[in-house]
Design goal:
By secondary structure, the protein is mainly β. It has no helices and ten strands. It has an eight-stranded antiparallel β-barrel with strand order 1-2-3-4-5-6-9-10. A two-stranded antiparallel ribbon has the order 7-8. The radius of gyration is 13 Å and the shape is globular.
C-alpha cells in the first residue's frame, strides 16, 4: 500500500495513481497510459494518456475513450478527504463531461486485485 504519511516526490513515469472523491463518490486510477474512472454504476476506460509537468509541483494528465476526454491536474498540495478527514499527499482536480471534481490522491503501485 502506498505511504500516505510522507511528502511525495512524484514521478509520473514510475507511478500509478489512485484518486478518489465524494459527492458524488468516484475513483480514478492511472497505470502507464491507461486510466479508469468509476462513478456511480458507470465505468469508463481511457487510453492514450499522457502526463505534462506544468511546474515543479503540478502535473496535467489527459486521456481519451472513444469521443470522450478526461483531464486531471495533480499537485503535491496536502489534501484532506471531506468525508473521512484522512490526509493524502496529493490533491487532484478531475475534469470530465464539462464538470470538475476535487479529490485526494496517492502515488505508487496499489495491491493487485
Amino acid at each position: 500500500m502506498p505511504d500516505t504519511t510522507r511528502k511525495v516526490e512524484f514521478d509520473p513515469a514510475r507511478s500509478s495513481i489512485s484518486v478518489h472523491g465524494s459527492i458524488p463518490a468516484w475513483l480514478f486510477s492511472i497505470d502507464d497510459d491507461r486510466a479508469m474512472l468509476r462513478m456511480g454504476r458507470r465505468t469508463v476506460r481511457f487510453t492514450r494518456g499522457a502526463w505534462v509537468q506544468e511546474c515543479a509541483s503540478v502535473w496535467d494528465y489527459e486521456a481519451y475513450a472513444d469521443n470522450e476526454k478526461i483531464a486531471m491536474q495533480l499537485s503535491t498540495a496536502m489534501c484532506v478527504d471531506s468525508t473521512s478527514g484522512a490526509e493524502y499527499p496529493l490533491h487532484a482536480i478531475l475534469s470530465w463531461e464539462g464538470r470538475s471534481y476535487r479529490g485526494c490522491a496517492v502515488a505508487g503501485k496499489l495491491p493487485a486485485r
